[in-house]
Design a protein that fits this description.
664 residues, mainly alpha, three-stranded antiparallel beta sheet, 47% helix, 7% strand, globular, disordered C terminus
């Protein structure tokens, strides 16, 4: 969900709101002293409440949604959802008992979303609650999967929300939109139960609303106001049959699946729900599915056979497809041609990746449905991705290795080899960082390879740090790892504070931060903000880590091996395993989780325990000091030239003397 009243201007969060007070249109803009986007949202909510109180004090009408408006929303959503379910059940040959089971499962999922919010996280407590209420384990797990599937797409479509806002004159405030979403979810829950003649009234709405909704015969919100029942007026004289004009039946235009995908992407990108990496994944999934359907398929023409064709395509592609020059030029067809020359073990996209593709395909299809049949687009026949998600069979999907065996950690000796590069002893120049020389520059090349073993952090978190999240003057200097406009995080528990490691301070990190601030930068490592790469992690890997690893291990480490069509070796994430292994048994597990951004191992730790104090984390991180203790400081700090405080290759003057022009 977006939060339109909060905006980042430079290094500061601002709260903005347009409102009318005593007939005067005002635009309020106030800076907030928040240190994170989460704190800014809390402050913004309080400011919004104060602004609403001001409006009411001047006699303005409240912008909140009224009960009668919510009732209309509930009525319309219930009738529409019930109509869709009944149509699907009538057209399907599935036994009634299976429909009842499916309706019950979806009713429970919609009830969960209506009571907890559309972004609520399903927990073990919710699973156990179902078990206590008499659900068997398989069905309880199915409810959890249903919640996940609904949240993977759009539980409540933007078109449906927009329809209610416009037709019922509801102010589109953040609070109102949240109320609409949970009310619609409650209506869908009741519709599912009503479809099996087992109407319950625990959806969080008055029971009278349900009865009134079912008796309501008003046009749906999306229907034209002109569509009304014919008046009982004077009878018309009958027209001769031969004079009757046959009115053509209007046929709604179909929609291309790829066009629906771009429309879905535009909405999610506009609301900052999908970042650049996610958008690329969505386009890849849609591209594969459209190819499996024969290309330029209409949503209305998609069938269950196309789902099978999609999984067959994924199994036929090289498991590392689209990487060669020929494949990039020739597309999927070129990848299939290349697959003909490859060994069987090098073919087939993994089931995990297929499931990710299906998630995005379903998200696009859900978005394309819209609020109604008049504007929405759905396959003519219901389709299911259930079998496609499961793969060939349970045994085939079982892991043959534990997660810890799939990725090897760097050994202490390997870390020392990596950290013996010329980067920290002297290089030949800014663009020759692995060639010995007399220069030492303090930039991403210098600091990030040190921070990885000292924190066990994810490269995207560190490489994408904004300067506003570096607090070098605090009693315990620290870094705030948080969501930003430029870089997301893996999950919510990744939000945390990390004390600036004593080793970094010894080597001059505080002076580096101050120098970068003085240069007018907004990023801690401005050269990592590449306009061509999709993420900070990708920029770091391609421009620094990959050449650095090749310098230290030209033939790869002893762990290097081939998996399918790809060579695997110790990588950036391997530092994470090194750091957590060193701290294991030395510091409490809860502190380790808080340092590395992991979820707690128990429900109590995940839900109730506070984050460890900075002083406790600092003492824990000191156990990693031996990894970098051999590096000598090079002071004073020397940052990049002003012209190079951005991503880019060497300047033209360093490319060598210009070639002499040929003369005739």
């Amino acid at each position: 969900m977006g939060f339109s009243n909060v905006a980042l201007r430079g290094s500061r969060y601002w709260w903005r709101k347009k409102m009318t007070v005593a007939g005067v249109r005002l635009t309020l803009a106030l800076p907030m002293g928040a240190m994170s986007f989460t704190d800014a949202r809390v402050i913004a909510l309080r400011l919004g409440s104060a602004a609403e109180a001001l409006r009411m004090g001047y006699g303005e009408r409240s912008s909140g949604v009224r009960p009668d408006q919510l009732k209309k929303v509930f009525s319309d959503a219930l009738r529409w959802q019930l109509q869709r379910i009944l149509e699907d059940q009538i057209a399907s040959s599935t036994p009634a008992a299976d429909h009842a089971s499916l309706n019950s499962r979806y009713a429970e999922a919609w009830t969960f979303l209506s009571k907890r919010g559309v972004e609520a996280k399903w927990s073990l407590d919710d699973y156990e609650r179902l078990i206590d209420n008499g659900w068997d384990k398989g069905e309880a797990k199915a409810v959890a999967n249903t919640v996940f599937d609904l949240q993977s797409g759009s539980p409540v479509s933007a078109q449906q929300i927009d329809s209610y806002v416009a037709n019922f004159a509801i102010a589109p405030t953040t609070t109102n939109l949240d109320k609409l979403r949970v009310t619609i979810c409650a209506a869908k829950a009741v519709a599912c139960r009503k479809a099996t003649a087992n109407l319950l009234t625990d959806a969080g709405v008055p029971a009278s609303w349900i009865d009134d909704a079912l008796a309501d015969d008003a046009p749906f919100a999306w229907e034209e106001a002109s569509i009304t029942a014919p008046r009982q007026s004077e009878p018309r004289p009958p027209c001769p049959i031969e004079a009757a004009a046959v009115q053509p039946v209007s046929v709604k235009a179909k929609q291309y699946f790829v066009d629906a995908a771009e429309a879905c992407i535009a909405v999610h990108e506009g609301q900052r729900a999908w970042d650049a990496v996610t958008i690329q994944q969505v386009r890849t999934a849609i591209r594969l599915f459209d190819h499996a359907c024969g290309g330029d398929v209409f949503i209305e023409d998609i069938t269950q056979e196309h789902v099978t064709a999609f999984t067959d395509l994924c199994r036929a592609l090289p498991n590392r497809w689209g990487r060669t020059t020929e494949e990039r030029a020739g597309g999927i067809a070129a990848s299939l041609e290349r697959a003909k020359t490859m060994a069987p073990e090098m073919l087939g996209v993994s089931q995990i990746t297929i499931n990710k593709h299906i998630t995005w395909i379903m998200a696009v299809l859900d978005h394309a449905e819209g609020a109604n049949d008049e504007n929405g687009h759905r396959p003519a026949e219901p389709i299911s991705f259930k079998k496609a998600r499961k793969g060939v069979g349970k045994k085939a999907r079982q892991q043959r290795k534990r997660d810890r065996e799939k990725r090897a950690n760097w050994t202490k000796q390997e870390v020392r080899r990596l950290l013996s590069a010329p980067i920290w002893t002297g290089v030949a120049g800014i663009d020759r960082r692995l060639t010995p020389g007399s220069e030492i520059l303090h930039d991403a090349w210098y600091w990030l390879p040190l921070m990885l073993p000292l924190y066990g952090g994810r490269s995207s978190e560190l490489a994408g740090l904004p300067l506003r999240d570096v607090h070098e003057d605090a009693p315990i200097p620290y870094l705030q790892i948080d969501f930003t406009e430029d870089r997301g995080l893996k999950n919510v528990q990744s939000v945390r504070k990390l004390p600036i490691h004593p080793e970094l301070i010894r080597l001059g990190f505080i002076d580096y931060v101050r120098a970068i601030r003085s240069a007018g930068c907004t990023m801690l490592f401005p050269e990592m903000a590449s306009p061509t790469n999709l993420s900070f992690a990708s920029t770091f890997y391609k421009s620094i880590f990959n050449p650095w690893r090749k310098w230290a291990f030209p033939e790869g480490t002893s762990w290097r091996h081939q998996v399918g069509g790809a060579w695997k070796d110790k990588d950036v994430h391997s530092f994470r395993g090194t750091a957590t292994s060193i701290l294991k048994g030395v510091v409490p597990d809860s502190v380790r989780c808080d340092i590395f951004g992991h979820e707690g191992e128990t429900e109590t730790a995940r839900t109730y325990d506070d984050e460890a104090e900075l002083s406790i984390k600092l003492e824990a991180l000191k156990h990693l000091t031996p990894l970098t203790a051999h590096i000598h400081p090079s002071l004073p700090i020397r940052v990049r030239p002003t012209s190079r405080l951005k991503f880019g290759v060497r300047t033209p003057s360093r490319l060598g003397p210009p070639k002499a022009r040929k003369t005739k």
